[in-house]
Amino acid sequence: MASEDPSVKAVQVKLVLLGEAAVGKSSLVLRFVQNDFNENTSPTIGAAFLTQKCRLENRVVKFEIWDTAGQERFHSLAPMYYRNAAAAVVVYDITKAASLEKAKAWVKELQRQANPNIVIALVGNKLDLVEGADGEEASTPTEAPEAADEDAPADEDEDGTPPPPAAAPASEGPRQVSHAEAKAYADECGLLFFEASAKAGTNVQDVFTEIAKTIPLDTITPKPAAGGAQNRRSAANAAAGDASAVNLGDGAAAKKGGCC
Amino acid sequence: MLDSDSYDTVILGTGLAQSIAAAALAKAGKSVLHLDPNEYYGGAQASLTLDEFATWAAERSEQPTDADDEYTSAQHSRYESASTTPLGSLAPDRRRYALSLFPSLMASRGTLVGTLIASDVSKYVGFRLLDSVSLWDDAKGAAARVPGSKEDVFKDKSVSLPDKRRLMKALLFAAGEFEEDEVLKGHEEEPLLAFLTRSFGLSQRLAEALTYAVAHASSPDEPALPSLIRARRYIRSIGRYGPRAFLVGQYGGAGEVAQGFCRACAVFGGTYILGPDAVPSDITVANDNASVSLKIPGHPRTITATHLVCSPDFLPASLKPESIGTKTTAYTVAVVATRPPVLAPANAAEEGEEEEEGDDTAVLVFPPTDTTPLVRALVMGEGTGSCPQGQWVVYLWAETGDVKSLQPFLGKVAPEGVSWQASYVEHAAQAKPAASEETGASPLVILEPYAGPHLLTEGLDWEAAQGERAFTAVAGDDEHGFFEKAEDEDDEEDGDDE
């Protein structure tokens, strides 16, 4: 792919998406991965997971982004979904108060099911629907980067030209969740917090960049997942991949015949 | 509430076979509604946490009532004497365990491995090589590793040179095209153990090793031909992914694999409901045999489907297949906090060498005696994701209705005692195989649960074969084959793995 610094090895990080249906989980990922927005995304179909790299000054984080594939609807997400996830993005819709309550329930579920070190980002989506209405307050990102060009969160598909902010729309969808309320909840639970717009692209990169910065990389399990993060074997084998672990689709290994 | 009242296929239970069928059908473009009355995935193949296992056992030892639904009452007749010890000091970490109801291994050249690769579900699940297979030596009171491959035989210091030659000859025979071999002709039905002793001059000890730890037979009387066919598949599995034949699945194996197929089904549009909202009732086959209807608490109207795929456990008596007997197996699952001796390093460290850290997984077979049946043990360490560091999970099972009879064997695998234990007896109904399952002849596709004597080495491949059978029964001569790649299908995953 594009210019890559071979001295920096990408660290693979599993990231799971959670949130009520229609809050824009898939749109956020589409914006992050392809810098695209599709007005009529149908409920997620077809992708096992998407990957996207996030370059920081001293590391490259390769996100493996798992979508719920609709399994959240009847609360039938399998334990496998949470397994070894190092990060989670919990999304709500700032124009729907009930969706924040749902998001809180997902945060609880993550605290119950997931790795205790998981980095959780709470994201209020659809900022574009209220930007015209409540102006400055909403458009100021909470976790504003200290210096804009300190670590441009570039991935290879993006040339550092973020899409222009959408023209302020009419305030048809009034804000139902105040920035302060969600921020207070996020602070209380130790979550990263952003308001974003998948449609306009506002703050989307920042969500993933901030997660990449926050993840303690020494606790990440290698893939394929072995044991747990504290696993002695996996720790010893982390660099070369777990020696005992087997890649089923490995063609080179598959070519060899039986030995007897 | 569901979006629709009608589906191409409704699938009951998230066991491995059902989940494979679900993923394959969704991928082929069928609308799939997948239901499981349990709160967890995997059905009879589930991987459970400690607290889930305790609930599982408690529910199955409750008194049955007339109000029970079909599935609940089938569970009551299937499982007996289910009990668990208190969680005690393990309680805080209870969710870090993955204990399987289906202790099993995957042969590297078996059916399931092919299905995992074809479906891409291999991306979701992890496997590692089984470290060793041992046979219990009663005279020594210890486990002895069984050399399963040519290399193993060369390295083994406990076998004399003439015995090595005989053993090698027997292994080469079992790995080859023996069907037409004069050595076997006329002796296909002879018990394997006797056949090996007689034809290859093997000692009783080595013949037992081949019978129980290479062919993984369950009794000395299993006939030679089918046992050798099995052994050949296992021997030929060596080398595909490393120097041993079998793979151990992460996080309990079968249950995790079932979750992977369910996720694949969901990714292709399948709908999932688990728990009380998904308990089916009023399962009815339409008079014209063209559809099935059923109700669930989670949807206000009757649901109809062109096909219903399920195990006999879900069906009312009028639709159940004829049972031709049951196979009774006693199981015990234990968590231990001391490394089981069977995992000790293969060769004691020589002077100056660094001490090996020991194995993570092992199979230990106790050959049958005059008074005890064959007992199998499967040991899994932290590397399999089954338990926290410094602990091990031991599965023990045998064809007996007396679960207490396993206790002395547990003492041999884990002489330092156990931290937690679950025990139960399973009566697996052997259903009469469906006569002729012509495509479209019946809207009901009934999966056969595994009820054979080789759960450890054949159970997963059985499930995979049942899953494919169900797919074919539903999809028939559809333009989409079993996990066939569509021609214009892009690999959804990125291709930039450097």
From TrEMBL, chain A:
Task: Outline the segment boundaries, as ranges, of region: Disordered.
Answer: 133-181
- Extract one GO molecular function annotation from the record: GTPase activity
* Gene3D superfamilies per UniProt: P-loop containing nucleotide triphosphate hydrolases (3.40.50.300)
Keywords from UniProt, A to Z, are:
Nucleotide-binding
Q: Does the keyword Ribonucleoprotein apply?
A: no
Pfam families in the record, alphabetically? Ras (PF00071)
- Where in the sequence does UniProt note compositional bias of the Acidic residues kind? 146-160
* Cross-referenced PANTHER family: PTHR47978
Name of this chain's protein: Uncharacterized protein
Q: Which organism is it from?
A: Apiotrichum porosum
From TrEMBL, chain B:
Pfam families on file = GDI (PF00996)
Under Gene Ontology molecular function, one entry of this record is: transferase activity
Q: Where is the composition biased (Acidic residues)?
A: 486-498
Q: Which keywords annotate this record?
A: Transferase
Which residue ranges does the record annotate as region Disordered? 59-88, 474-498
A cellular component term (GO) from this record? Answer: cytosol
- Biological process (GO), any one: small GTPase-mediated signal transduction
UniProt keyword annotation of Transferase present: yes
In terms of SUPFAM superfamilies, this protein maps to: FAD-linked reductases, C-terminal domain, FAD/NAD(P)-binding domain
InterPro entries noted in UniProt = FAD/NAD-bd_sf, GDP_dissociation_inhibitor, Mrs6
Residue spans of biased composition, Polar residues class:
72-87
Tell me the superkingdom of the source: Eukaryota
User: Which family is this protein grouped under?
Assistant: Belongs to the Rab GDI family.
Kindly provide the name given to this protein in its UniProt entry.
Rab proteins geranylgeranyltransferase
